[in-house]
Amino acid sequence: MMDGQLIAPICFMAGIALGAFALTLRLASERKANQYKLRERDKIIAEMSGRIPVDEAQAHLSTLKLEMDGLREELACQSAMHEQALADLIKQASLDRDEMISKSCLANDARISRLRNLLVADHATLERDAGVLLGLVKTVERWHDELQAILANNSDLKKQNESFSRIIKNVVMLALNASIEAARAGEHGRGFAVVADGVRDLAVSSEMLAQNFQNNLFKNDLVTTTTFQDMQASGNMIRTLVFGMKATIDKIQSVIASEDLAA
């Protein structure tokens, strides 16, 4: 970013250098013109020395000498003015360049400060979110343990239901045997036969109820197992996300620390 912002001052200095170069060329051109005039004067003096009297030639020579001195003074004055203007131009260009670089550095410092503040804010937000996710992971782990307890309880209930089913089957067999014995007893066993039939009907109803209870336990196992697997996968995803966020937090912290050291 800093190199890009130095392009403008460099281009500005290049323009100043080109202007100074043009000024130097103009000064050289004026010097060349004055030198040409001096050569023309010498040529005229040489031509006149063979045609006019000595007194007249000396008078012309004095006049030309005065003109030459004036031209030299003018040339020296212009040269000094041009050199001073060039020095002032270079000095002003240097001041402008330093001012532009200073402003650019201040602007960069302000931008870096804003970026650092944003990084600090993002770092705090990520840390807070990571803490929330870690709390959620702990909640999922607690649910995981509770679901395992539910599965274990379902297993115990199925075992108890199987024992209950065996008892019902035995009751049915006993009721059947009682009915047979009541039939053998004839009229004396009729009341006992009615009771035996009632017990058998109750046992059959209990067996159907036990079967329904068994089916519901299987359904609960299926739902609980599916939920258990989903929660386990969700917990792993959240845990992976937390690890990624922690890596990002560490990188941001490293950048902030580097900026502090650089400052």
Automatic annotation (TrEMBL):
Signal sequence, renumbered to the chain: none
Membrane-spanning ranges: 6-28
A single BP term in Gene Ontology: chemotaxis
Keyword annotations from UniProtKB, A to Z: Membrane, Transducer, Transmembrane, Transmembrane helix
InterPro entries: Chemotax_Me-accpt_rcpt, MCPsignal_dom
GO molecular function, one term: transmembrane signaling receptor activity
UniProt-listed Pfam families: MCPsignal
Domain Methyl-accepting transducer: 136-263
KW Membrane (keyword) present: yes
GO cellular component: membrane
Entry similarity comment: Belongs to the methyl-accepting chemotaxis (MCP) protein family.
Protein name: Methyl-accepting chemotaxis protein 1
Organism from which the protein derives: mine drainage metagenome
Originating gene: mcp1_5
